[in-house]
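Purpose: get a first structural picture of the assembly so the mutagenesis plan has something to point at.
Setup: two entries, given in the order below. No constraints added.
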Amino acid sequence: MLLAHGGGGRLMSQLIERVFVPTFANPYLSRQHDGAVVRCGSVRVAFTTDSYVVQPLFFAGGDIGSLAVNGTVNDLAMCGARPQYLSCGLILEEGLELEVVRRVAESMQAAAGRAGVQLVTGDTKVVERGKGDGLFVNTAGIGVVESELDIGPEQIRPGDVVLLSGDVGRHGIAIIAQRESLQFEGTIESDCAPVAEEVLALLAAGIEVHCLRDLTRGGLGSALVELAERAGACVEVCERDIPVREEVRGACEILGLDPLYVANEGRFVAFVPAAQAERALGVLREHAGSAQAAAIGAVTAAGSGRVLMESAVGGQRLVDRLSGEQLPRIC
Amino acid sequence: MLLAHGGGGRLMSQLIERVFVPTFANPYLSRQHDGAVVRCGSVRVAFTTDSYVVQPLFFAGGDIGSLAVNGTVNDLAMCGARPQYLSCGLILEEGLELEVVRRVAESMQAAAGRAGVQLVTGDTKVVERGKGDGLFVNTAGIGVVESELDIGPEQIRPGDVVLLSGDVGRHGIAIIAQRESLQFEGTIESDCAPVAEEVLALLAAGIEVHCLRDLTRGGLGSALVELAERAGACVEVCERDIPVREEVRGACEILGLDPLYVANEGRFVAFVPAAQAERALGVLREHAGSAQAAAIGAVTAAGSGRVLMESAVGGQRLVDRLSGEQLPRIC
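Result (C-alpha cells, whole complex):
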C-alpha cells in the first residue's frame, strides 16, 4: 500500500475497482456512490461510512470530530437522504491524553447538533504506543430517503448543468498551513460544514436532481472525472466560473498546488436539468453555506467519460484524475 | 489512554460513563446496549458499529475480516434485529501488501454470505508507515427489528433464567496461542461465528427474550457484571454449568487466565422468563452453533447489581469486573 491508495486519485480508484468491487460484488457497491440506498422494510434508507485520519487533529475551522460528523452527514445528503443517526468508532493510541478524547467528543456532539443528527452507538479500541497515531475516528450514518428520485452518476444526462455550491480549496490549504506552520495572508479556515439543508431544499423545491457529489479527497477535479467516467458523459466546465478565494489561490501558487484538486469538506456539485438550473441556483444561494453557488459547466455529450475545462487564459484542456498523493491524510 | 481503556473492563466502562455518555447525551447511547434501535420512518432499525484491531490479522478459526463481519452481525442480533447491511471502513498502513487486503476482503465477503448480509458501502484510508499497524477494520451494520419486544438490560426481571449459547474462552485462547506461538493440546480455534439465526429462532418461537448480550472483550464475567449493574438485579450463576472445553481450561491454567474473562466471538447470553427457559434451550440446541447451550443461572433479587457465582468446588464468590487488561487487541 502506498499513501496514494488513500488519496482519492488514480491508485485509490484502482484499488476499489480491482479489489473491492469484484470481491464484494453487489449492485449497491458497484454504483460507487457516496453511500448506499437500501431498503429497510418499506423505507428507503441511505447508509454510509468514512474513517478519518486527518493530521493535525485540530485545525483552523474544525477538527477531526467535526470533520467526522460533517463528512458522513454530507455523504448521506449526497444520497438525497435526511441524515438522522450516526455511529462513532474510535481507535486511540496508548498514551493519548484523555483531554483530547474529551475535546473531540465535544466537537462531535456540537457538530451533530448543528447538523440535526444524533450519535447513537459507538465503540472504542486502544492500540499500543507506536501502532496508531493519536486518534482515528470512524463514523457511519443512516437517514431516510424521502424523495422518490434516484440520485447517482448513472442519472447524469447530456444537457445537465453542473452547479458548484461555493468556493473550493479551503480545507486542504487550512490543513497544510497548520501542518507546516505556514502563514498565509489572512487565516484560511476549513470549509468543514454540513450541507444537508441545502440539498434537502433543492429536493423540496422540486428540482429533479440527477446526481450529487461532495468534493473531499481529490477535490473538484477528481470528483468530476469520476462522475464523467461513471456516467459515460462529457463534462465541460469553465475555470473562470469556479470560485476560489484570493488567499487560497495565493497559497496554492506558493505551494505549487492546483485548487482543482485540493480537498473540501463543505462543498458539493449537483447535476440538474438545464431548465431548472437557475431556480436551483436561487435555492442554493438562500443558504449561508452555499450563498456563492455557481453554474460551472454542463454535460455536453454522451459516451465519452471525460472532463474538459475552458481555462481562464483561453483554450481547452483535459482534466485528469489526480495522480499520486497531493496531501496525505487530509481527512 | 491505557490499553485497558479498550479492554472491556473497568477502565473502559469509566471512559464510557464519564466521557461519552454525558457528552453524547441521548437515550440511545445511555442504554449502553450493543447497538441502538432507532426509528427510520415507520420502521425500527438496529444500528451498531465496532472497530477491529486484532493482532495477528489471521488466526485459527478466523481473521480480522470474518471477525469484523460476525462481530457487527452479532451486535445487531443482540438488538433482536435481522442483520441486513454492513459498511466497511479500512485504515491501512503504508507498506501493507495488497494481497493481505485482498485476503481480508475475501474473508469479509465469505462471512457476509454465511451471515446473510451485504457489504454495501465502504471507505479506505492509508496512514504512513509506523502510524498504524497493518490494517484496522471498522464495520457498522443495520437491520430491521421485526419483533415488538423491547430487548435490553432494563428488561431483566427477577426470576429470569440466564442461558449461555455454548462453551466460552476459545477466541481469546486462539489469539494468544497464535500471538505467542504456543502449542496447546489440540488446536484451539476461535468460536468466531454469526449468531443471528439462533436469536431470530428464539423470537420466532415466541420466547419473550428480556435481554441479549454477546460475550466479547471481557468475556462472560464482564458481560454479566455489566448487565447486573444496569438492571439493578442480582445474577447468580453456577460455575459447573458454564461449558469450557478441556483444552481451553488447560490453556487457561497454563497461562493463568480465568476462562470467565476470556473473549468470545460467537457466544451470547439470553435472559428469558423461567417458564420459557426449557423451550428456549430446545430452540437454541437445534442450531449447530448453540448445540451446547446451557442454563447457567438466574436473576434472584432486584436492586443489588452484582453477580454471585457458586464455584465448582463449593462456596459462593462475587464476580467482579475485569480490572486492567487481560489480553490487549483481542478483537
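Residues 33-145 of chain B form a domain with the 60s Ribosomal Protein L30; Chain: A; fold (CATH 3.30.1330.10).
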